[in-house]
Design goal:
single chain, alpha+beta, 3 domains, six-stranded antiparallel β-barrel, five-stranded antiparallel β-sheet, 6 helices, elongated, disordered N terminus
Length: 389
């Protein structure tokens, strides 16, 4: 965090969270593989990838590296096995216990050929082609809502049809009877939930926290987005633009800084986009910092897409009773309550992320001054990476 010795600003500043009254509350928020792991020693993987694999697969660091090395080569092994087996090929998968590629074979006489390609072998009754044909027939049927889906399951050498056990009804049973009559390979599996559509996280869109509203800054690869710190404290739950539960604040800093990041749940997909509020999106390409005097534009859920120029960097801003924030960038673009946390972009095609809206003075009717927290500082503070396209 860069600090300057500049005197406190004499002008009033517009911040907003909760009920937005200019000049008082925090900042523009609106109210209400081949089967050998030795090669892993020569591979280099991003730290966040290794951490995620260890966390989600229950592996230690060495096991994670071996697993990733095997995974990287698994496609080649599968293609080679598929080529030598022909119609006897019965699917391929990485064994969850060993991390090794396994290939299903319907003809035991061809097992050695699959092994020579670098795979473990399992002799099974149904070829991949037969299973795929059965699944294709199911695709022609109309399914009731309780049937949640169907797929070829290589590991069990079956076609799995899933049904929601809590909503299973006569229509579902009729569909299942038809499905199982197609082939003895069809297997019915009951599940507890039905799938739902997912949602995109996009810079400039609204998000909600309790009775207030702010704007998304930029999507990050960790699954979530950066935004303004005054929008919520760590642990504050959030809802997306559509009021669907989206996640919670994983970190937040305000005053002193004005940045935060929100970790989203599995219903939301982080996209490298910023809403231009004209039916199109800016695609984020990086975060190269714009010079003083450069054209810059911002996106926010109250006033949409607004532009101006960079006027100063490393500015200290006094938000009165809400506190002082250091290291902000000053611009001539306007903003209003609810735009807080939103995206600032510049450069070719506006593809370079600059920061997230903190606060300002004035409005988009009479004009104003708006400040943003530089995005690279936020990414560095939390060890995050931008989602880029």
């Amino acid at each position: 965090m860069n600090r300057t010795s500049a005197a406190r600003l004499a002008t009033a500043v517009l911040l907003a969270a909760g009920t937005a009254t200019a000049l008082s509350v925090p900042a523009l928020a609106a109210p209400a593989a081949p089967n050998a792991g030795s090669a892993a020693d020569t591979e280099s993987y991003p730290a966040e990838l290794l951490q995620a694999v260890q966390r989600d697969l229950g592996l230690n660091a060495d096991q994670a590296r071996v697993r990733l090395a095997n995974d990287a080569r698994s496609g080649d092994v599968e293609n080679q096995a598929r080529g030598v087996l022909g119609d006897a090929f019965a699917g391929a998968w990485i064994d969850s216990a060993t991390g090794r590629m396994t290939v299903g074979v319907t003809d035991a006489a061809k097992a050695d050929a699959a092994r020579a390609a670098g795979a473990d072998v399992k002799v099974v009754p149904y070829s991949h082609r037969k299973l795929s044909d059965t699944k294709a027939t199911l695709d022609t049927l109309s399914a009731p809502a309780s049937i949640t889906g169907w797929r070829v399951d290589d590991t069990s050498n079956t076609v799995v049809v899933e049904v929601n056990r809590t909503t299973r009804d006569a229509a579902a049973d009729s569909f299942l009877a038809t499905a199982t009559s197609l082939s003895p390979a069809v297997r019915v599996v009951e599940v507890a939930e039905s799938p739902t559509t997912l949602y995109d996280t996009r810079g400039g869109d609204a998000f909600y926290m309790g009775g207030g509203r702010c704007s998304v800054g930029f999507s990050v690869t960790a699954g979530g987005y950066v935004t303004a710190g005054h929008c919520g404290r760590a642990g504050t739950t959030t809802q997306g633009y559509n009021r669907v539960t989206s996640g919670s604040f994983a970190g937040s800093s305000f005053p002193g800084n004005d940045y935060a990041w929100v970790r989203t749940n599995s219903s939301w997909t982080s996209r490298p986009w910023v809403n231009r509020y004209n039916g199109t999106n800016v695609v984020v390409k990086g975060s190269s910092e714009a010079a003083i005097g450069a054209t810059i534009c911002r996106s926010g859920s109250t006033t949409g897409w607004r532009c101006g120029t960079v006027q100063a960097k490393n500015q200290t801003v006094n938000y009165g009773s809400s506190g002082i924030v250091y290291g902000l960038t000053r611009t001539s673009a306007c903003a209003e309550p609810g735009d807080s946390g939103g995206s600032w972009v510049a450069g070719t095609g506006f593809g370079q992320a600059q920061g997230v809206t903190s606060g300002g003075s004035g409005n988009c009717s009479s004009g104003g001054t708006t400040y943003y927290q530089p995005v690279n500082e936020i990414l560095g503070a939390y060890g995050l990476r931008l989602a880029i396209g």
